[in-house]
Amino acid sequence: MSSGPRQRVLEWVTDEQLRVATLVGLLAIPFIVVPAWGTAGETNTVAGGSVSGAPILLSGFIVGYYYSDRPTPTRQASVRTGLVSSIGVLVVYLGTAYTTILTESVEIAIVASVLTPILGLLGVGLTVVLTTVAAVFGEWFENGGAPGPNQTQSDGDAAAPMTTTESGHTTQRSRSWLFVAAYGVIVPPALVYTLVVNPEAGPGVAVVALAMFAMVFGSVGTLLALAKDIGTLGPSRTARWADWRLHVLGAVGPAALVYAAAYSQGVSYPPGYAIFTFIGAVWLVAVTYLACRHRYTGQQPKSGSPAG
Questions:
Q1: Which has the higher per-residue pLDDT, 29 or 141?
Q2: CA–CA separation, 20 and 1 (whole Å)
Q3: 106 and 173, same structural domain?
Q4: Looking at the DSSP assignment, which residues form a beta bridge with residue 163?
Q5: Across 160-164, 201-205, 214-218, 233-237, least confident range
Q6: Do 297 and 164 contact (CB within 8 A), yes or no?
Q7: Are 100 and 109 spatial neighbours (Cβ–Cβ below 8 Å)?
Q8: Are 272 and 224 in contact, with CB atoms under 8 Å apart?
Q9: pTM > 0.90: yes or no
Q10: 10 Å Cβ neighbour count for 47?
């Protein structure tokens, strides 16, 4: 007899291997909500609110440090912590949306009602990414700055079938690179339409909304797909260009710098600048990774089934 949704959620939360990661995420929630709650009730606060990144980064660092020498992959633990702590982000977003709906005009209230779920999903995705990046530093700190994952950690790709490329390198078959390549193709026209064409009315507005949705969530998915594909590279996964943590830092670092610069200059909405920077940085990371992978294998990455 299959377990119900409640039982599955309980098993997910109480997973022995990720218990510490879950606990750290839960402890981060009040430190996310309390500092932001004072602005949630202000009438001049836009829907989405303002969330401090310090608790998110600290929780990620702690998890990276703790899981660096344990069988559970640090990446998996940091994603769990990010998902749990993002509950605090959702609480802040809902609070600011509630204030906006009560205090603003009907038109703005409708816009806030539509944008809040989208902003909430974006907040969850960015929280997970920031937690993962911070976990990189925690793992590096514990390992004394040594690159690469701890050798005692398990890898879900270890059982994937092996293949030998035309250049003589041994890799595992993977389809994850297809997602990375798709992101590389979609982003340029989507950015041009969003930033250059930028329709202000009509069906074009819906196209822009869909483009933003695809680019933002596609960027997070691309980083996850990239990390998964790196796990299939065999001996080459230890190369500098195949270190997934450097790719994550290369994507998030520029966005963090742009956010800090925009905030210091008093820009009205710094996250907007950071989001577009993040999208562009992930695109550059994706293109660079695919170029390096193609050079390593001597051909397009194989995704076919093993020969019978």
A1: 29
A2: 30
A3: no
A4: 171
A5: 160-164
A6: no
A7: yes
A8: no
A9: no
A10: 22
